[in-house]
# Entry
Amino acid sequence: MIDPEPLPETVVHRDRVPGGRYWSMVIRRGFTLRLVDPEGRANVATLLYNPQNRLERYNMADTLKGQHTSKLTRGNMLYSDMGRVMLSIVEDTAGWHDTIGGITRDADIVRKYGEHRYQQYRNDFYRSGRELFLIELAKWGLGKRDLVANLNFFSKVYAGADGVLHFDPENSQPGDYVDLRAEMDTLVVLNTAPHPMDPSPVYDPGPVDLSLYRSPPVADDDYCVQFRPENARAFANTAIHNCQG
Amino acid sequence: MTGINLVESALDPANAVCREVVPAGEPWLKELRKGQTLRILDLEGNQAVDTLFYSLERPTAERYSAIDTLQAQGNVYLTTGTQLMSNEGRVMLTITADTCGRHDTLGGACAAESNQVRYGLEKKSMHSCRDSFLRALADSDYGLGKRDLASNINFFMNVPLTPEGGLSFEDGISDAGKYVEMRAEMDVLVLVSNCPQLNNPCNAYNPTPVEMIIWDAAKG
# Structure
């Protein structure tokens, strides 16, 4: 068990999302969202939107090619399709967060885990990542057209030299956490359904602990801003977006 | 599926129902019927062709999905045999021939704003694939727009991943005369931007025309 850094005294909200459930909130610029994997088996599928213009959203391709990476960890920034930074990964103990694995759909869940419908199982019924995203997105007026390639915090998918994709079930340990600093107001929509490549034959997705705290000011030598020249330019674009308050 | 799968086509361009050259920096929007085959021909070599597909029946509801395509084949690269999947988990097209051997679907399309981030804040005025996509959609009547621009395919583009999590845009492995061919498994709308990128080697720093060739089913 890794002991997460004690939460700063600036914490304003804490919550736990059980496995196989959803959550969303606008994270204001100047606040940081911490995700903790308390049991070492969380998968947090995540999408990001600009609440003022929901056509602007997290862009997998721009994030990856801008930082020459297919994984995300401390120092990386999550780019929108408008050349701006939505969230910065200011702390990370897991070391790898997935960007290409996607989500499960209903048929995947039935095929892998069998059918567990509400009628028989009440609130222990099995839910897919796509179902949970569509429900939570709908509350913000978003839908299938807005469902793009998502992040999977705490999961690791890597490609061999032949391009074959592999999943590492040992990536995240109990207590691992990642801190996401909002550089602009960002609608975060997440769910905790199993990762589509999770080899476990049992449907038992882990919970995630959330906390929200006020970020310290972004210093000139900020690790994320200085991590790559692309990050500094994306951050400069974000500053223009924020220049009126 | 282990990556490169070189397969030549038996189709004869003399029997094609459509042959159109798309100059660099221009979009191309075309309806393709189930059973028709589309060949994209790299006329001068190393030319990235940014491509999206939409269900012709329900263009705003069903579209090409890079992530579903990777998930279905368990591999990041596209080549002969790859089934191009929709966000609804259905096969939209199948790659039936490929003389290049590897195509990308993670690198996305260039845009004015991402060019700024990648190459310099002063690059915003340079032409980009997203501008071509948006222009083509805005001038059409399919009801599609920026909201419908998800991760695309980059035919002829080489974006290798490493097991350590690296990703880079490398010099292309295509050459003049190489092509990729795909058969439509449903009626689709094809949206192409023949890439105008001048800042990286995806077009060998010299964007060039490509030819789009379409055959009807069983008319090879």
Summary: The mean pLDDT of chain A is 96. Helices of chain A lie at 60-67, 106-113, 118-121, 129-138, 223-227, 229-241.
